[in-house]
Structures are given as structure tokens and as C-alpha cells.
């Protein structure tokens, strides 16, 4: 890749072509690092969002089971406390 860039920049001098090729190589490396970091961050966000969804579904299931297994008096007492607060 550097030889191709050197050939492109050869009209302006060997030293300028070398510095231009180095600058382009550094720019490409930074772009690749930035893109990779962004993709990893997006993947981490998706995983955290899925984990949060799983936790909320488990909590909803636990609450549903608790309500289904509670007796009527307990449910009425909880409802009164909830309405009071």
C-alpha cells in the first residue's frame, strides 16, 4: 500500500511522498481503530440491553407468581397500602 501511495506522491518529491504515505497509513490505522471501537461499543450496548430485558422479564414473572400464590386477604392488604402511599 505504501508503495502505491509513494508512486502517487512521487511527483512532489521523495521526502514529501514518504511523509504523505506515512500520514495516510496513520490515518487509515486511526480510522480502523475508531471503527472497531465503535462496533465493540455498539455490541456491548446491545448485550446490556438484552440483559436488562431478561432481568425485567424475570422480575415480572416472579411478581406474577407471587400475586397468583398470595391469598385474597394479603392482596387486599397490599392494595390498600399501595393506594395509601
In short:
The chain has about 80 residues and is mainly alpha-helical.
Task: Note down, in words, how this protein is organized.
The protein is mainly α. It has one domain (2-84). Helix content is 91%, strand content 0%. It contains three helices and no strands. The protein has helices at residues 2-9, 14-69, 72-84. Helix 1 (2-9) crosses helix 2. The radius of gyration is 31 Å and the shape is rod-shaped. It starts with a helix and ends with a helix. 0% of the residues are buried. The model has no long low-confidence stretch (mean pLDDT 87).
Structural class: mainly alpha
What fraction of the residues are assigned to beta strands by DSSP?
under 5%
Proportion of residues in helical segments: over 70%
Oligomeric state, counting identical vs distinct chains: single chain
The poorly predicted ranges are none
Count of helical stretches? 3
Report, as a whole number of angstroms, the end-to-end distance: 70 Å
Radius of gyration, in Å, reads: 31 Å
Give average pLDDT, whole number: 87
N-to-C SSE string, H for helix and E for strand: HHH
**Major pleated sheet:** none
- Please count the beta strands (DSSP E, at least 2 residues each): 0
Which outline best applies? rod-shaped
User: What is the total domain count?
Assistant: 1
